[in-house]
Structure formats: C-alpha cells, structure tokens
Amino acid sequence: MDLDVLKSFRRIVALGSLSKAASELGISQPALTRQIKRLEHALKTELLVRNSRGVQLTEIGEFLLSRAGPLLDQAELMGEELSARLGSLSGDVAICMPASMHRSVTAPLLSDIRRDMPGVRLRVIDGFEAVVHHQLREGNVDIGVLVHDTERVIDGVDQSPLAREPLQLVGKRSAFPSGTRFKVKDLCEKEFVLPGAGNHVRQQIEELFRRQGRAVRVAIEVDSIQLVNDLIADGVLFSIAPQSAVAMFRGDGIAAWPISGASISWALCIRQTRQQSPIVREISARLRGYVLRSPRVKIND
C-alpha cells in the first residue's frame, strides 16, 4: 500500500474536502480523485462519500484511517530521525499561532527556520485564539500556542505553561494622556470591540470584569485585528488586547495603556504523536525562546 496515497487520504479527511486537500498537497483535484479511486479499487470497497458538506468516511474508511494514522506518523518520524542523523533536518511541520504574536514571535521564528532548516517544509496558520484551538483539536497542526487553561483538555495534545503577558487598553491616542494606568473598575462604563464569545482571551477579559461585579460592555464582536483597528480609530470604542498585539494596531493616532492586574497566560501545545520528532522539538524550543525573550512576558510560575 502506497504511503503517499495514505497520506493524501488522511489530509482529505482532516480538511473535509478533496479540493482543499489537492491545493495543500500541490496536485490537481482530478489527480487526487484518481489516487483515492485506485486505493478504493485495490481494497474493493468505498472509503469516502461526497455530500453537500464535503466528504464523509465510510465505516471501512474510518477503520483504514485508524490504522493508517500511526503507520504514517511512524514513517514520518523515521524519515526525520534519519535526516537528523545525516546532519540536517528535513520534513513537514504545521504551526498555528495567535495573531497577537505575529510580529514578536511568528515572523522572526519563520525567518530562523528558513535560514537554518531549509529542508523543513512549513505550513503556518495564524488567527485569533479560537482558530488555534480548532486547528489543534482537529489534529491539523503539530505545534500551537493557546491561552493556558488547565480545565481545557484537547485529546491528543500536550499543553505546558509558557508565559504570562499583560493585557492593555487600546484606543485613540488622544483619549488619555501618555503614562495613564487603569484598573479594571475604571473601564466598566466603556464600550469595547472584542473577539467572539468562544475566544479564550475574551473569556479572560470577561472574568476580570466579573470580579468587579460588572459585565464587560461589548459593542461589537470582531475576529479581525484590522477591523478592530478601524473601529477604535475614531475614539468612541476601545479594545483590550495582549501587549504583543499592540504593534498590530497601526491606525493613525492609536495607543495602548496598561491595566493593573490584567494578564493572560499562554501554553505551548504539541500534538502527542509528534513529540519525538527532532524537527518539532527544535522548532518548539526556538518558539519558546522567542516568547520568553520578549520583555513583555514573564515566565509562568
């Protein structure tokens, strides 16, 4: 049985779409369809059924996936270990990072990898925290950074405390003098642009206000830093964001102010089946270094 075809089969299932898998794998959709048809012909059974939402596994397809997954993971690990013994790192790694860390962590990390590990093929996703959680939960990425929550367990993913980062009030520069510091209770009457309710950063902010016996006043829910930027630029609305995200707000006259006692904790997340990968170990170590190198964060106790 061809391991490359099994790998393609697994990506189709993970993405729920032949077209998305074909795009990611760099082949045409008809060619990918022919691969799966040949596999089904060899096994004399149907593995995937197309429907309005994409593709769905048959019972035999589920069985094949359960057996092929560990085999593919082991083959991938063996290839990476062999390349490491030969003096270079080679293989595929998928990373998902919070958008707030784009400038301070993700961009310099990717530059490092391209310079020092040219044999590593990267797939990178960045987005709000809910996006990172979804990608890890679905098994689509090897490494990610999430808001640390001991009560949130993701099957097949190990989470370790990484760092603690201050939250800041973001708004039009003319709204307050430079050097102003706030307490959460000072912000209870302001209206905010925040991510959707499923976002863990949003949930941490709501908890800060609940401790004051108040509810955060969310005027608009937005899952786009650029749109948040535009909405707060006129000075009517504000946002609250991790300090590393402040550099992402690039509108004219936008500033940030510290909020006493307001912070979030980050966790480094690694898919358990990839923990022994020399590439994943090296990239995880470098990622941790970039996060902790920043003066904005503190190592978690």
Q: Termini, distance in Å?
A: 49 Å
What's the story with the biggest beta sheet? Answer: 6 strands, mixed
Biggest sheet strand order reads: 4-3-5-10-6-9
State the share of residues found in helices, binned by percent.
40-55%
CATH superfamily of the largest domain: Periplasmic binding protein-like II
Number of helices: 9
CATH topology of the largest domain: D-Maltodextrin-Binding Protein, domain 2
Order of helices and strands: HHHEEHEHEHEEEHEHEEH
What would you report as the Rg, rounded to the nearest angstrom? 22 Å
Domain module tally: 3
Question: How many β-strand stretches?
Answer: 10
CATH class categorisation of the largest domain: Alpha Beta
What structural category arises from helix and sheet content?
alpha/beta
Question: What features would you describe in this structure?
Answer:
This protein is an alpha/beta fold and 301 residues long. The chain contains 9 helices and 10 strands. The chain has 3 domains: 81 residues, Arc Repressor Mutant, subunit A (Orthogonal Bundle); 104 residues, Periplasmic binding protein-like II (D-Maltodextrin-Binding Protein, domain 2, 3-Layer(aba) Sandwich); 100 residues, Periplasmic binding protein-like II (D-Maltodextrin-Binding Protein, domain 2, 3-Layer(aba) Sandwich). Strands 4-3-5-10-6-9 form a 6-stranded mixed β-sheet, sandwiched between helices. Strands 1-2 form a two-stranded antiparallel sheet. Strands 7-8 form a two-stranded parallel sheet. The N and C termini lie far apart (49 Å). Helix 1 crosses helix 4, helix 2 crosses helix 3 and helix 5 runs antiparallel to helix 9.
